[in-house]
Every structure is written in structure tokens, then in C-alpha cells.
Amino acid sequence: MFSGNHPGSAYNIRDLRRVILVAEYRSMHRAALQLGLDQTTLSRSVIAVEHAMGIKLFDRSRTGSQVTRDGAEFLSVASGVLVEMDRAVIRLRLRRRGRIGTLRLGVQTSFASGPVADMLDRYEKAYPEVETQITDDTREVLLRELAATRLDAAIVLSRDGVWSNSRALLGHERLMVAMGKSHPLAFRTNLPWPDLSPYVIMIPRKGAGAEILRLVSQHGTETQQLALQDTSIDRLLAMLARRERVSIVTAGAVGLGMEDIVFRPLVSDGEPVLVRHILCWRGEDEDPVVGRFVELAQDYDWDGGSSALSVGL
Fold this sequence. Notes:
By secondary structure, this protein is α/β, with parallel strands linked by helices. It folds into two domains: about 1-95, Winged helix-like DNA-binding domain superfamily/Winged helix DNA-binding domain (Arc Repressor Mutant, subunit A); about 100-300, 3-Layer(aba) Sandwich (D-Maltodextrin-Binding Protein, domain 2). It has helices at about 15-25, 30-35, 40-55, 70-95, 115-125, 140-145, 210-220, 235-240, 290-300; strands at about 1-5, 10, 60, 65, 100-105, 130-135, 155, 165-180, 190, 200-205, 225-230, 245-250, 260-270, 270, 275-280. Strands 5, 6, 7, 8, 9, 10, 11, 12, 13, 14 and 15 form an eleven-stranded mixed beta sheet that branches. A two-stranded antiparallel sheet has the order 1-2. Residues about 1-10 and about 305-313 have low confidence and may be disordered.
């Protein structure tokens, strides 16, 4: 509420809105009809603002109410303030509903395609006013950033004890063997673990590299056959084009669209080898944006009806 120099003089936002309408109609009578008020009530609002501001807003006559020079200057500013105030109220309401804001999301695996990419695409279409900021790194780094409140949520590969706060198991994603088009294994439809043993397996240190390395070790591949790479997944794949080496990646990397690289499903006992994603977030976080994202991620059909078995990570 605004106070002027006159004893007891004050006005509120409702009074100001009424005054602006009088200025638009240039008539107390027509403004009163529009508002569904009697002219006496409307006049009180005009007088309240005039007394509070110490200026005359209108020159009144039988033909209407003409805005004075001082009134025009004041109402021009006041109208702009009200517009910005209304916008702020709308934005605050949308923020409370989780429809605008910022989502800081960590993602461990490549998501050029696959279920993570599809889920994120659906989220951005459902909440176009939310700015999604995505960070990719190892599981340990992402969870450390989440605990330090520098991330709002993280999608990582599942493992027991991975996160003690709020979490939800999401769904599976295939592991693929990547290689150059001319590689001896490129003509196979799928690849069991033993078929990889003659070849050097290139694995990125970041992303899903640590989990893939553990799986490779569990299946008896010799350590000297592993080559850890400090590079991005797209550069690692580019390195395979003219070498008799392979890499193991999540299916999301297929969407990188590398022309000289082919991908073949990795299988174990005839079944696709799958990893499972888990969504982690801080349970005490009451940000509606995070709540909407968690809700959509849990409702999303991650497996798409797949009956393949997953391996422990």
C-alpha cells in the first residue's frame, strides 16, 4: 500500500487498476459500467490515488474525464509497473507448478538416441519453459555434484548402495559393440563375450566406462586387452574406423550417426546384455521442477516391453 502526504490517504492496487481503466475509457460512467461498480465507489478510488500522490489525475466535465499532464505521466509509469507485476505473478504461479524454471540434470551414459534421449525429449515438449542444463560425467562425479546441490537430479547406472537418498529404478538399455565397417566382426548380427577376446577393447574413462570395464573383467577378458581412453565417446568411436579394435557402449551412442562405425548387440547366453538406469535426487528438495521431472521419468515406459534379462551392475 502506498501512502501520501495527506492524513489517512492511501490507495491499493485495486484502486490503481480502476484509475487506469478510467483513463482508458475517458469516462467515469463507462469505466464504472465495465467494472460493475457505482460511480461513487469508483470516484473514491480516484480520489484515494490523487490524495496519496498529491496530484490531480483527471479534469472532469460533463463530456468525460480527461487525463491531466501529471496524470498521464504517472499513469504511464503505473501501467508498466502493473504489467510487470502481473507477469511476475504468472511466472511465480507457473514456477510453483513446475512449469518454468531450470533443471540441472546429470546423465552418465550417451543419449544421442535411446530411452534416455526419448524421455528427455518428452520432458522438454511437456515443459518447454523449463531450461534443461545437462552435465555428463562418471557416476561418482555426478552423485558428488548432486550431493553438493550443484545438480538437481542424476540418471546413472544402477548398483547397490549407489545413492542413499531418494532414487527410483527406471529401465534397461542395451550394450552394443562398436567397430569400423571393415572389422572382421562387422558382418555378425550379434556378439557374445568370447568373440571379443582376440581384440583390444577401447573404453572411455568417463561416462559408463567404469561399469563397462567391470563387466568386461567379470567375463574373463584379459586386462592387457583393454585400452582406457581419456576422450569423448564420439572421438573414441572415430578412432575405431580404421583399426581392428572394438568398443562397448550403451545403445544411446548409436544415435551419434557415425558413418564408418557399425554397432552390434552384445549378448550373453543368447540374451542381450543390458544395463539399468537409476534416477537419483535429493528427497528434501521441494522444487516443483524437480518433482515434475521425477514424475515423468518414473511414468515413462523405459523398457518398451523388452523381456531381455539384465546383468548386475
